[in-house]
C-alpha cells in the first residue's frame, strides 16, 4: 500500500513538473507500481496475506469472547 501511495505522489509530481521529480526518468517514477505488484505477488505466494487475515479474525473473536465474559461477570480474574 505504501508503494502505491509513493507511486501516485511521484506520478503527480512528474505530471505537474514539480521540483526535481520533473527531471527524473519515467522508469524511476513508475517503479513503485512495479514494486507494489512484486510485493502483492510475494504476499499471496508466501501466505502472508492469509496469515494477517486470520490474525485479524482471531483478535475480533477474542474481543467478542472477552466482552461476553465481562457481560456475565466472569471476566479476567484480578488478584485481591
Observed structural traits:
single chain, 80 residues, mainly alpha, 3 helices, elongated
Helix content: over 70%
Mean pLDDT: 90
Stretches with pLDDT under 50, minimum 5 residues? none
Instruction: Supply the helix-strand structural class.
Output: mainly alpha
Please state roughly what percent of the residues sit in beta strands, choosing from under 5%, 5-15%, 15-25%, 25-35%, 35-45% or over 45%. Answer: under 5%
For the termini, the CA-CA separation is 47 Å
Major β-sheet annotation: none
Task: Write the H/E string, N to C.
Answer: HHH
Question: How many strand units?
Answer: 0
Structure in a nutshell:
The chain has helices spanning 2-15, 26-46, 48-72. With 80 residues, the protein is mainly α.
Please, could you describe this protein's structure?
The chain is mostly helical and 80 residues long. The protein has one domain. 75% of the residues lie in helices and 0% in strands. It contains three helices and no strands. The radius of gyration is 23 Å and the shape is elongated. The relative contact order is 0.09.
Amino acid at each position: 500500500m505504501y508503494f502505491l501511495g509513493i507511486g501516485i505522489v511521484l506520478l503527480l509530481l512528474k505530471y505537474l513538473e514539480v521540483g526535481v521529480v520533473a527531471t527524473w526518468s519515467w522508469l524511476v517514477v513508475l517503479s513503485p507500481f512495479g514494486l507494489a505488484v512484486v510485493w502483492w505477488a510475494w504476499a499471496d505466494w508466501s501466505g502472508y496475506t492469509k496469515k494477517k487475515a486470520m490474525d485479524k479474525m482471531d483478535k475480533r473473536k477474542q474481543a467478542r469472547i472477552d466482552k461476553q465474559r465481562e457481560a456475565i461477570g466472569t471476566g479476567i480474574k484480578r488478584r485481591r
